[in-house]
């Protein structure tokens, strides 16, 4: 089907939505998140109802599996972070016990982030021909920094890996206040900032420009809930800074409750993500 006009939307160098207008009337719309998560684009013939056009079954199978892996991983990872912070707040004070739960949760977070990146790498792509999608061969990695979905999921994965440094270092005993801040608190803070950057990019993607409310869009709710969780993680990290003079953290209760509520947001986001599938 020939087309006479193509309109791209997004922010900066990123394209998040493309609308083709056919010479004979009607439109076709590609959105990066819809194509990546559901494997679809929308075609609206002239004077007719909109029709959802899907990628081939191979691509849809990939997206279903990767979506399930990511959703379950974030749900379990968030739940384990809730448990770890609850043990720190209400438990016996055994740091090793809480650190172990955090570490296992961190593994699930990393698995979820990598599954999200794989979903981006292997998503069906739009063709120059309007209203069509194409499936490429399976890849374990790609480098596409000008694709906003790739950049968002890559930064998310980097954040989980930096968190891993913090979680491993938390097993060290006998650290001074300066060492705690350098080896544990600093990676924690960097990981939180990377989560926030990833979440902002995801909001830009789903908003097709500056972040805005899209309360009827499931993808927006998933991104918004996760971003709120990232904000709470940052609050927890700031409260967990150790005062070099006294050797005490700024506010242990805020750090623990910020982690509990922030991790709960990621679990909720994971559950919601189970429904954003082909």
Summarize the structure.
This protein has 278 residues and is of the alpha+beta class. It is 59% helix and 14% strand. The chain has a 5-stranded antiparallel β-sheet with strand order 1-2-3-4-5. A two-stranded antiparallel ribbon has the order 6-7.
Low-confidence residue ranges: none
Q: What is the 3D shape?
A: elongated
Distance between the termini: 25 Å
Strand elements, count: 7
Order of helices and strands: EEEHEEHHEEHHHH
Description of the molecule:
It is a single chain. This protein is of the alpha+beta class and 278 residues long. It has two domains: 3-54, no CATH class; 57-273. It is built from seven helices and seven strands. Strand 2 (14-22) and strand 3 form a beta hairpin. Helix 2 packs antiparallel against helix 7, helix 4 packs antiparallel against helix 5 (177-207) and helix 6 (218-239) runs antiparallel to helix 7 (252-273). It starts with a strand and ends in a 5-residue tail after the last helix. The model has no long low-confidence stretch (mean pLDDT 91).
Give the key terms.
278 residues, alpha+beta, 2 domains, five-stranded antiparallel beta sheet, two-stranded antiparallel ribbon
Q: Mind sketching the topology for me?
A:
Elements lengths: L2 E9 L2 E9 L3 E6 H7 L1 E6 L5 E4 L2 H34 L4 H27 L3 E2 L6 E2 L13 H22 L7 H31 L10 H22 L12 H22 L5
Antiparallel strand pairs: 1-2, 2-3, 3-4, 4-5, 6-7
Helix pairs in contact: 2-3, 2-7, 3-4, 4-5, 5-6, 6-7
